[in-house]
Give the backbone structure.
Amino acid sequence: MAERSTYDKALIQVIKLWRYSETVKEFVLGKTLARIATELMGVSGVRLYHDQALFKEASGGFTPWHDDQQYWPLASRKIITGWIPLKKTPLEMVPLSFAPGSQNNTDYRDLAISDDSEMVIQKAMNEYSFECSAYDIGEISFHSGWMYHRAPGNETGKTRGVMTVIYMGENIRLKQPENQSSVK
Ligand SMILES: O=C(O)CCC(=O)C(=O)O
C-alpha cells in the first residue's frame, strides 16, 4: 500500500462486470435502475455507459474529492452514476460524501483524482453542506457527472465493495476530449 499512488490506494477497479455473470448482466442491462436514471435526469431514455466494481481494501486510502465527468468526453451533463454497495454499508465503512449543488461549480472540473484535487476541492467545498448516509443492503444512490464527492480511508479492517452503473441520456453525443483524463 505504501508504494501506491493516492489514486491506487483508494480503490481497485474491475470493469464491465456484466460480462462475467448472467445474473449481473440481467441487473446491469435491466430496466429498474435505467428507469430511475431516466427519471432523475429528465430524459426520454438512457443508454448504459459502463459498469464496474470498486473495492476499497481494508486499510485502503481515501477517495479524493473529484467529479466523474472529466473522465468522459461527453457533450452534455445528462450522465449519472448509480453507486451500489454490495453489502450493508454503515458510516464506518466510509460511504461517499456528496456536495449537493457543486455540480454547478465549474472551477475545478478538470482536476484529476489526486492529492491536488483533494486539497483544492476540499477548500472550495467548505461553502457547501455535505450529504453522507449509511446504506442498508439494497439501498443505492445516484450522483450526476459533475457533482464533487469523496470518501475517507477505510480503517475497518474489512474491504468495502461497491459496484457502479453509469447511464447517459440516450441522445448524448461525444465531444473532443478537453483534458488529459478524458483522452484515455
Ligand atoms: O467508492 C468510492 O470511494 C469512489 C466511487 C466514485 O467516486 C464514484 O462512483 O464516482
Remarks:
- The pocket of 2-oxoglutaric acid is lined by residues 11, 54, 56, 63, 68, 81, 83, 96, 149, 151, 162, 164 (CB under 6 Å).
- Helices lie at 6-10, 22-28, 31-41, 115-125.
